Structures are given as structure tokens and as C-alpha cells.
User: Fold these one by one.
Assistant:
Number 1:
Amino acid sequence: MSHPEKGADISVCCGATTSLRCLKKIAFAATLCAASVAVLAIHHTKTSGIMARIHHGLIVCASNTGTQSVAQAATISSMGRPGMVRLSLTSGADGQVAVEPGSSTLATILDTASHSNTLLMLDLHGADPKEVAHEVSKAHMRDRVIFVPADYKSTAAALKADSKVMVAIPINSERDAYNAHRMAGRHPYAAYLSPTAAPSLFSLVHRDAEAIITDTPSAKISTADFLANRPVDIVITHQPYQLTTSLTVPGSSTTHSE
């Protein structure tokens, strides 16, 4: 016959063991949930970021036609081609970064773009790159935005503002291409070329830049033919809907960098 006190000890011991197992299971479940959330966040970033979208096809960027273009870009995205909007920024009298034309703040536009899964190209102009980078980071849009500096000094400031946000650097010659690569270092950057640049220059910058940006060519050449002979990732246009429609016509072809 077992001793009463010993029986009590065994009961307490078993209860403690069971509780410990329960705590371990709860901790494991919590860890699993946290890991699932992290995986979903990473997956969203990988599928909605600029680089991921580039691999899905040419990005059509609506050129500074007002804040309503964010909704227009979302429509373009629904047509199977990634949408982007180019907007001009300025520093408002109240210290907030504002979007021109109109009176919308950058924070508002970033929130709209985030929910509509739209990419943004931001002309910095007189806006402080650090302030812009802060707003972009707060909106979790660092991988979905491209900074377009106004000049060399602004480019250097933009590169320092955030190590993850892509910066567009204008390139008009081979020398510009080498200088841009050296200036950017390990920072992600896009080469912004004129549509009149030689195809060989497009091929040259394709080796180092994460993305290649250009404007739509003159009406003398078919945009589809132009893109077929140049490794372009983002094309800026005043008529995004018409361009998107023309590129989906059977027989038209485009190329983009891998």
C-alpha cells in the first residue's frame, strides 16, 4: 500500500508535468502563428515589390497626371500589367510633404497606393529626401517606390536617405553609366535613359542597374518595336491606358531585363 504523502507528491508532480507540457504546446502554437504571419508578410513583399513586378512584365508608369492616377494605375494592374504612377513632391507650408498638383499629402497617397497595390515614382524636387524616406518607410512601401532626384546633389542625398529605396539616376552616356554605378555602390538604383539613347547604351546599363527606365518614344516608331530591341523595365507615358492596350494586341512583343 502506498504512503499517503508519497501519493500526494506523485499527484502534484504529474500535475506540474502536465502544465509544463501545456505551456510548451501554447508556446509552440504562438511561435507557429508568428512564423506564419512573417511568411505571409515576406510573400507579399516578394510579390508586390518593384523587382518582383518587373519579372512579371513591363511596368507602365502614368506620368504626373494628378493623384487620380493612382486609381488609374490600379486599373492597369487589373489588366495584367503592373501599374505605376509618377508624382511630383513639394514641401508644404506646414512642413508636410505634399503631392503636386493638388493638395494631397504624401502620406495619404502612400496609403492609397498601398491598398491598391500600386507602385510609385516620386520626383523629389524641393522635398527633403529624408522626410520622404521616413513617410515611405512608415507606410511599408520601401520596395514599391522609386526616388527621382532633381540633380547630382539631390541624388547623393536620396541615396543616403534610405538604403533600400531604389533611386533613378539619369544616364546619357557610357561615362554617366560608370559614374552612376560607382556612386550608387551597393544601393539599388535604376538607370533613367532617354528614348533617343542608342540601344547599345541600354544594353550597357542593363548589366549593373536593377531596372531601366525610359519615356515612350516619338510617334515615328512603334512602342512595341522600340521595346523589343531594348531591355526596358519601366516605360513612362502620358497615356498609360492606350499604351497598355496597344501592348496587349496580338503580335506585339516586349522585352524586359531578367
Note: The beta strands are 59-63, 83-91, 97-100, 119-123, 145-148, 166-171, 189-193, 211-215, 234-237.
Number 2:
Amino acid sequence: MTNPPPGAAVVTGAAGGLGRAIAAALHADGWPVLLTDLDAEAVAVAAAPLGGWSRALDVRDEAACAAVADEAAAEAAARGARGGLGLWVNNAGILVTGPSWEQDAATRRRVVEVNALGAMNGTLAALAVMRAQGHGHVLNVVSLAGLVAAPGETVYAASKHALVAFSIGTLADLRLAGHRRVHVSCLCPDGIWTPMLHDRLDDPGAAASFTGTLLSPELVARRAARLARRPRPVVSVPRWRGAQVRLFDAMPGVALRLAPLILAAGRAGQRRQLRRTGADQHRRNPAR
């Protein structure tokens, strides 16, 4: 029989897409899960079949993240879950595409504030509780774009690179400070077929997200649930894609020369997905 999870879990950006799938996978694994999102109504709907525990949260608000961490720890104790705050999943994120010089300052700031600073806020709020209780795990949902420069998604990739550096550096700082049972992990999946990409099939700037095989949110969520139980610093999904992009990252000159071919493959992937989704739509709504 599986051991009960070590406390309650918090998932940000959980109203839909991957966040909702991660919350469902954690719930199925026995975690009491607090679902949070900027959209209070949508996250309440998502939480209803998972125990109905939800809160509105803007991850850019440091004080709000701290309040959610404290609430999760207190509520876990009230619900009889051992361990207080056992897991915090930083999943909230936004994607912008196109050359960086075409994005205005407000757009660049928003991407960095949500993807990097927002995850930092959540991590530090969780660690304030976890360090005091002596255990816990922060799981940061990054992207393969956090491991390699992704043309067309430059600002997004920069924010994800920052999150990887912050996560690994924070984990090292925890170990140096003697915290052996407090963990930080990065989950770096390939492109996932969620609402983040649903309207990107005609967007050449998003081609990098379609260079591999699109993953389902449920598959990535199951990997996240396993990682929640067995922390590792960096996990890519699928593993071979992580090795591939790290090779490109180690040889930037080669990656630059291959960029046109890589993006051509991505545009072909967009066309395949467009045909696939069109066929799915036709099956759901056949002509009468």
C-alpha cells in the first residue's frame, strides 16, 4: 500500500490545462490539494471534484503567496494530514512568441514577473514553512525552453532559464544550510497540448514548441506526481528530448546553423496538429 503523502499540496495556475491535470494526479495519489489561480471562479470549478479546496492567487503578489503557504500548512493539520505543507507546485506561467524586439516593455515584464518572479515568490513562501517544519518539496514546472534557447520564444525561454538557475541554486543553498529533507525540483516537459498552445497552430513564433511529439497534460501530470514523491533536481519529459536540447545548448554555434531546419520541423508539427485537431472536431460535430 502506498504511504500517505507528507502533507498538503499547493498547485498554482490550476484552473485548467496542466495545472488542473497535476492537481488531479496529486489528488489521485492521496494528496490534499489546494488549487490556486488568478481566476477565482474557474479554479473553484476545477477544485470541486478534488475536495473543493481553492483560493484566488496572483503569484506576483509575494504576501499573497506567503498567506497561501501558511493556510495550506494550517489546513493540512486541521484535516489530519501529517506533515503540514508537503508540496508546492509552481505551475502558473504565460507564453509570448515572436522576436524579442517586437514585444513591448510591459509584455516582457509580465512574462518575467509571472514565470520567474512569481515562481520565486511561491518557492520562498513554501520554503519559509518547509524549513521551519524540517521537510517539504517545491516542484517548479519549467519547460524544455528552460534548458535551451528557443527561437521565437526568446523572452519566455529567458524567464524559464532564470527559474532553472534559481531552483538549482536554491537547492544548493538549502543543502549548504543543512536542510537535507527540503527539496527543489524542476520538471521540464516538451510541448504540451493545453490551451497555452491551442491558438498557436498558425503562429510561426511558436514553432519550437512543436518540434517534438506533443504531450498530453495527463502524461506530464503523472510524471509530476511521481517526481513529487521522489525529488530530483531536473527531470525532462521525455528524457531523450532533454538530452537533445542540452546538446544544442552545449554547442550554440551548431544550434544556430540548424535553427532553420529545427523550426521547419516545428512548422510541420503545427500543420500535423492542425490536421489532427480538425479531424477531431469533425468527429465531434459531423455534418448532417
Note: The beta strands are 8-11, 33-37, 54-56, 85-90, 136-141, 182-189, 234-237.
Number 3:
Amino acid sequence: MPHITPELAAMELWPTDPDAARALQSRLASRVRVHPCDPDAVRLVAGLDVSYGPTELVAAAVVVDAATLEVTAQATVRATPTFPYVPGLFAFRELPPLLAALEQLPVEPDVYLCDGYGLAHPRRFGLACHLGVLVDRPVFGVAKTAFVGDAAEPSPRRGSATDLVDRGEVVGRCLRVHDGVKPVYVSVGHRVDLDSACELVLRLSPRYRICEPIRRADQLSRRELAASGRA
């Protein structure tokens, strides 16, 4: 349901050259806004993920009720990648089909979760930042590994966390979502802060290491990709 802001819609948002893509990230990074997002006010959360086949990808968006974690809406888009596989530039491969999937949703989520990075990125403009700036909605990233920076191992207890630091700057948080389970890496995308994002991740991860909206989106994209392979 989100729409790209008119000012940004007039820009060349999808270059096919990696150098031009890096330059665009650096230019748009100044538009990221970090401020608190009240977790108690969040009702609908969209999880986003992409699965890849040999020649195509499937982008999935799954909206869950923040209180019950029940799925309220979902959409997928199948596409052929139009941008090369370059670390740090995944947004240029994945965001066009993800935005197309979001346009199909019958509801507008309060918050969007990406399987990836926000400020925890070499140019401080990962996929979560890119999406957030384009649609001007609260977005953050949750990843299984760190792309940049270092973090001390948090204590084994659920909810413990340490700062993820890159070049002297805190760019995310290493968060333990379950006792004794490997942590995840949370980073701000847009219109949210780390405290709010981490609280939401804990609320949305009652059983698994991967928070429920992203886990559901991953499952959906994999199912759709497998179905296309059988067709």
C-alpha cells in the first residue's frame, strides 16, 4: 500500500550501474530519520523477504497482527533480477519487486521489517533505509549476521544486547532473542530508533530466532518459488 514520495518518484531511483547505485545511496543517506516509534501503538507489521532461483526471484510481503501474530494479508511478486549481485547493493535487486508486492496489500502496515540492514551498512543506507526513505514509513532491518562493524557477545539471556559499532559509530545492536540462541543484528532503517526496534523484535519473536513477520515472508517466498519450479 505505500507510495513513493513525489519528489523521489521524479528521481532516477534504479540505476543499473554499481557505481551509480553507490552514489545514489550516499546521496539519499542524509534523508534517513531516527526517532522513537511507540511499540504499543503498532498494530500491523509487514515482514519482507526475497528467495532466489536460478533465473528468477520471488519477493514476499506478509502482514501480521502485532498482538496475535496472525497473518492478516500477504502478497508475492515473481521477477527476473535486473541488477547484478553486488554486496551492499541488494536494494537495487530486491526493492522493485518488494515494492510491487507491497502495492498489492489491502492494508497499510504500521511498521516494516526487512531481512537485512539499515544503518549497519558501509554507506549507512542498507535496504531498510532505502525502503523507509522511499515510502516514508517506519522500517528497520533484522539480520542473522553482521555486514559491517563489531559487537561483543551479549549475555546468554533473552533481551540482552550489545552495540554494533563500525568506525566508531553505533550502527545497530546485537540482540539475544532467546536464552542461549545465537543473537540477531538489528539496525534502524527510517523513522524508528534502536530501542523501539529491539523491543518490537523481542515481541515478534516468541518462539523462533527469526521474528515472525520475516519468518512468514521467507516461508511464503520459498513456497512460491518452489511452485514456479514445478509449473
Note: The chain is about 30% helix and 25% strand.
